[in-house]
Amino acid sequence: MRVLTWLLCSLGVFATTPPSTHTVHEKRDGPADAWTKQSRAQKDVILPIRVALKQQNLDNGERFLLDISDPDSPNFAEKIANTFAPSKESTDITLEWLQVSGINIKRISYSAGRNWIEFSATIAEAERLFDARYYIFKNTFSGDFRIACDEYGLPQHVREHVDFVMPTIQLDGLRPVGQFGLFKSSPPSYTDLNDLSHCKNMMTINCLRALYGIPTGKYNHTGNQLGIPQWWDYLSAADLKQFHQRFTDPKIPPDVFPEVINIGGEDANDTAAPTAGRSESALDVQTAYSIIWPQQVRLYQVGDSASMDQTGSFNVFLDALDASYCTYQGGNQPYTDPSYPSPKDGGYVGPLQCGGAPMSNVLSISYGLVEGGLPRFYQERQCHEWMKLALQGVSVIFASGDNGVANRQDVCLDAEHGHVDAEGTRFAPSFPQSCPYASGFSYLILVTVVGGTTLRDGSISGGEKAVADSMYGMSYYSGGGFSDVFARPPWQASAVSKYLSEHAPAYGKSVFNSSGRAYPDVAAIGLNMPIVLQGNDATEGGTSVAAPIFASIITLLNEERLEAGKKPIGFLNPIIYKYPDMFNDITEGKNPGCGTEGFAASTGWDAVTGHGTPRYEKMREVFLRLG
C-alpha cells in the first residue's frame, strides 16, 4: 500500500501551541463499526486540512428561505442574497493561532467568503496542532482506507470560532442509497411502448405517463437542464444510445448525451462504463431523459474511481457550485483539495474545480450517508450549505433509501449511544436526507405483494402501495424515519404530529426520535424501470428510480413556469405540505428494519411514503398559480 500525499507549499518550521491549552472539540461516540483500526499513520504523510469557521446570519438564512418558499409570501420565488461569512474576529483569531503554531501565512488559503481555512500539513504537524493521533482505518465491506483520529482538540479560545476540522474523526463514506443488484439483466422484451398491459413487468415511459398523468416534454428553456451528480460511477454513451432507441417515446436522437461537468476526477466516457452492479448513472440519466426530453440532462461527474466510499465528496460538489469557495488569498488560484487522502494508488491528485460550475434549477441525487456515522458539527455545517442552494432557487431531490428504517447493508444504531452498530436496534436515518432543506423521496410499487410482479388487477388503475419486494433476491423497503440531529421544521409540524398521534407505533425514545425532521416528503414508482446496462436490456428498482422521476416532474413544471414568464419553483417542501392534494395518498405497506415492522403507511403523511405519489395536473395547477 502506498499512501498518496498532496504537497501544496513548503512546510516551514513548526512551533506548536502546547497541548495543555487544548480542549476536546469532537470525539467519536462508540466504536467505528465497519471500520478496523490498522496502524498509526505515517508521520510524513501530507493531509489537506480544512478548518470550517463558524458562519454568521444562518438564522436569517433560514428565515429568508422560509419566506421565499412560502406560497403566501409576497417574496415567494425570490432569491435573497446575504452574507454568511464568518466574523472578522473568528477569522483573525483562528489565523493567529495557526501562525503562532508554525503554519506560515503563505501556506494558508481561504475562500473569498472566508468560510473555510485551508492548508496542507504533515501527520506530525496535524497531531500536534489538534492534540490527536491519526490512524489508518480499513472498511470491512469495501476494503477502502481512511486516515482519521478518534478525537481531536482545539485551544479553548479558538473552539468558539470553529465548527469542525477535516480530516479528523469522519469515517463513514458516501454511497448510492440503493442496494447493489436490484436489477434483472434479462427482462421481458416489449417492443410496443404504447401497450399498457405489461406495466406490471416493465414500467415503460408510457406506463409512467399513464400512472401520473405526465405529459410529453415540449420545452427546452436554456438553463433548465436537470442536474444529476454521480460519484465514481460512469455513464456509457453506447448504453445511452441503445436506451434512446429502445425505451424512449418519442425517440430521442441516438447521439444525445448529457452536458458533462467534471469535478475533481475522471471524464465520463465509455472506457469507464459501469461494472456489474454499478448502474447508478445509467438508471438516473436514462430515466430522466425519457421524461424531460427535449430538455437536457447536466451530468456532474464528481470524484475518481480510486476513491469510492469517500466521506467528504458532497463538499467537493458543493465547493464546485459555490463561486465563493476555493480562492487563494490574493491569488484566485485553484487549490488541490481531495476531501480525504486516499491511500490507494491512482487516487485523484489534480486541481479541484473551485466555483463556477453551472447551477441547475433541480438536482436529483441518489447517494447518501448514515447519519449516525457522522459528527453532528459536520452535518449541521453541510445542511446549511444545502440551505444556501435553496436560497439560490435550487430544488434538491434525494432518494430515501432501500432498507426501510435501517440503512445500507441493513445497518442500525446502538440504542444507548446512537452510533452505527450492525446489531443495533435503533432506527438509522440517512444524511443529507434528514436535512430539512433537501426533499427526501420514497419509492413505491404498483399494488404488489412481496415477490409479485403484477398489479392488483393487472392495470395502471389498480393503484399503489409501499414496496415490500424480494424479486431481486433481497428484500427492500421504502426508506423513511426521523432525524436524530435535526429538529422537525415548521412546514411539516402539523402533518407529522397528526401521524404520530394517530398512526405511529409506540416504539419509544430508544428506537427513534419522534421530534426529529421526518422523511420522506413524497414518493414515486420504484420497480421494474427499464434501463440498458453494458449493452443489455434490464429492469431495475429502488429509490434511485424514484428520485429522478420526481426531479424530472419538477423540471417539466419549471419548464411550464418559465414558459409562463415565472421563475423556477426552488425550495419545494413548504409547497408540498401546504397542498397535499397534489399527491395520491398511499395507505398500504410498511418499511421494516432493525428487528421491527418499521412504520406503516396511512391516510395523510406517513414515514413510509410521505404525502404520496405525483398527480401531475394537480401539481401543474398549483405551480402555475403561484407567483
TrEMBL record:
Active site positions: E280 (charge relay system), D284 (charge relay system), S544 (charge relay system)
Domain Peptidase S53: 202-626
GO CC, one annotated term: extracellular region
GO BP, sorted A to Z: proteolysis
Cofactor note: Binds 1 Ca(2+) ion per subunit.
A single MF term (Gene Ontology): metal ion binding
Major site of localization recorded for this protein: secreted
Gene3D superfamilies: Peptidase S8/S53 domain
Compartment(s) of residence: Secreted, Extracellular space
Binding positions for Ca(2+) per the UniProt entry: D585, I586, G604, D606
Residue runs in coiled coils: none
Signal peptide start and end residues: 1-15
CC cofactor: Ca(2+)
Protein name (record): Peptidase s8 subtilisin kexin sedolisin
Species: Curvularia clavata
